Amino acid sequence: MTGSLGFLLATVPFSAWIDLLGWRAAFFSAGIALCLSGILLYIVLVKKPRQLFHNESVTVKDETQRENISLILKRIVLNRQAWALFFCHFGVVGGYVGFISSWAVPYGMNMYDLTRSDASQLVMVGLIGALIGAPLTSWIASRLGTIKRPYVIVHFIILTSWSAFLLFKGNPPLFMLILLFFIIGFGFGASALTFAVVRQSFPIKESGLVSGFANTGGFLSAVLLPGIFGKVLDHFQSVSGSMTEGYSYGFIIPVIFSLIGLFGVSTIKEIRQPESAEPESSV
């Protein structure tokens, strides 16, 4: 959720910051803010805990070094649940991050004749959806007592949303485009459920590595989608000179990615908490 807030600040607010200070000063100030954030994180996460829990940290360090990390990695790679989470994150993250970060603004400018600032507002709509999606889907999952069911629904909605771009040949009405960006962003926010499944399915000593493994799926698709999308646009622009046709076929890529994500979330084996634990907690 906080990551989506950072994405949000990098759209219209950062564009206004650039207009005010210019490119060099805006990026320089952003770099200073990142450096200060890194120093603050080091103080809060490393230095302070060492001072407060010096003896305990030594004990924990000795215990964690007993497990061979290569054995843990081998177990993860051979684990069906880990691969299900990998493909799940591949589908829900890549289409959003890969398209939003690279092609959303050019898409708005080319297909709807929007200014760069107006097109970046479309990105902001998706990020607002992500901010709402993360806490809301987590709350729904906790109320239902299941993670898989709402997550499958979210994946299906994302697949339907990307398919809508194909249905309208890459050029849906503007009001519908805004709604689709919001829904896809909402689905991206729901990707936090991936890590909830990790914590539910794996022991603490393995959950960090499994989270990284699942997150790799998301980053992999986010890297693959912009390049493949660009190849499709270049092909149709050189063959027919039509950018519209290129976009209409380019949206096949996030649809395929979403299908992979739906397959992944469908194969997740959910481990539910025993019902007998509920009365004890209520007492």
From TrEMBL:
Keyword NADP applies: no
InterPro entries, alphabetically? MFS, MFS_dom, MFS_Efflux_Transporters, MFS_trans_sf
Q: Which Pfam families match?
A: MFS_1 (PF07690)
Compartment(s) of residence: Cell membrane
Keyword annotations for this protein, in alphabetical order, are:
Cell membrane, Membrane, Transmembrane, Transmembrane helix, Transport
GO CC terms, sorted: plasma membrane
Q: Name one GO molecular function term.
A: transmembrane transporter activity
All copies of the Major facilitator superfamily (MFS) profile domain together span 1-273
Q: In its UniProt entry, what is this protein called?
A: Putative transport protein
Q: What is the lineage of its organism?
A: Bacteria, Bacillati, Bacillota, Bacilli, Bacillales
